[in-house]
Amino acid sequence: MGSYEIKDEAEKLKAIFLPFIATSHLIPVVDMARLFAMHGVDVTIVTTPANAAVFQSSVDRDSGRGRSIRTHVVKFPQIPGLPEGVETINSDTPPPLTMKIGEALSILQGQYQQLFRLMQPDFIVTDMFYPWSADAAAELGIPRLVYVGASYFSHCAMNCVEEFAPHDKVDSDGESFELPGLPHKLEMTRLQLPDWLRAPKPYTYLKKMMKESEKKSYGSVFKSFYEFEGAYEEHYKRVMGTKSWSIGPVSLWVNQDESDKAGRGQAKEGKGTDEELIRWLDSKKENSVLYVSFGSMNKFPTTQLVEIAHALEDSGHDFIWVVRKNDDGDFLEEFEKRVQGSNRGYLIWGWAPQLVILDHPATGAVVTHCGMNTVFESVIAGLPMVAWPLFSEQFFNEKLVVDVLKIGVSVGAKEWRNLNDFGSETVKREAIGEAIGLSMGGGEECVEMRRRVKVLSDEAKKAIQSDGTSHNNLQELIQELKSLKLQKDNSNSN
InterPro entries under this entry (predicted)? Predict the structure, then answer.
């Protein structure tokens, strides 16, 4: 080996990425790991067998392209009462099993820390749900970067509620209050706030630990891009007092080949094939199909499914609706037969090849729960949204999409609910139909939304190109990490 190769090898950064075990967190962290590998970092993703199965095909494709990336699989602990293979938190996970998965994660913590010591990475990137990893990195004398899910905007808004408690100054749950101190004037109600922000809950303390661990970390990485929410990126850095880099949209950056788009996430469950779906989309006119998906963590009672079904049928638009296996199968199967007969609708059971669907010219708009993975993917595809937030930080994301960026319309959901809780609100078919009409119709509001989201789509593509904002952020971050490695190596040799 020549001296140049030895020098390159010595300078090559080694990183461990530790994603959380919910699909909505797992996939973006794996995308980030793939992004760092694309830029010359030696990457090991550490996870458990069932979670590795979700993304392994993407890692194998990247490895086949000559990138230095692999998965290190750690056996999931056997907890009494937890069925083998249940390792992921999603809409199918009952609350008692979620608690048991949490127990297993606390056992895994020691194994993960031991791996950090054995593998001797130059830095680690861990999910925000692993606050302990900030201390683990400090013990090893290496930087920890924290992946912060959602948007800069939602974290700024949550911080504002924690700091100023504007919700305590109104008389009822339905009365609006302003979110003070933010770049835009925005209003919410108490009912739209997560319950852990309204009153102390166990999750309130976990969020506090996560925030403290972020402040102890070297910095945070977001899947966002500056042109999307730059004012809130700046605000966030000021409020947190820490470094942060927007290096997105990561899904666009690492999934540019058709094979990557089709293979992203777990294999399709249940009925039908992707080929059938594409043939169906190919038979439709441009911008004529509405895509309806509420992410991997949400489900509805039959009363709400009935309202959605009627709204879709009454809308006059063709549609694709992603439904869950644990939704009311009898009602949905009957509905599926009816819309198949008229060729108006296409139901996908379980996981959908979302990037492929959003990219298709026939897709015209998206009904979304306002999870940021879907929001970014819709923006990349240049599609306006119908915002239907349900839980987590989604009501904040709705404000960003509808009131700040003006690239979506609200379905009018008023009540935040917990994961695995149906809540007491049923959004009626008339409200759903009106929002669909605004996002899919040819009216002035729809034309303006399409124009604005197309501008953001173009900006997203520029952000990841050479000299784009996210490209520069990633280069700057990698250079900083290389300098830290060099300093550490020098001080060790001295």
Answer: UDP_glucos_trans, UDP_glycos_trans_CS
Q: Is 341 exposed, middle or buried (0-12, 13-18, 19+ CB in 10 A)?
A: exposed
Same fold, 3-254+463-493 and 268-460: yes
pLDDT higher than threshold 60 for residue 179: yes
Tens digit of pLDDT for each residue in 402-454?
Answer: 999 999 999 999 999 987 788 899 999 999 999 999 999 888 999 999 999 99
The pLDDT value given to residue 259 = 87
pLDDT digits (tens, 9 = 90+) for 273-305: 789 999 999 999 999 999 999 987 888 999 999
**Catalytic positions, written as ranges:** 25, 127
Q: Diameter of the chain by CA atoms?
A: 76
Question: What is the C-alpha to C-alpha distance for residues 204 and 165, in angstroms, rounded to an integer?
Answer: 14
Domain-wise residue ranges, the chain: 3-254+463-493, 268-460
CATH class of the domain whose range is 3-254+463-493: alpha beta
* Residue range 358-384, pLDDT digits in tens: 999 999 999 999 999 999 999 999 999
Residue 1, pLDDT above cutoff 60: no
CATH dotted code for 268-460: 3.40.50.2000
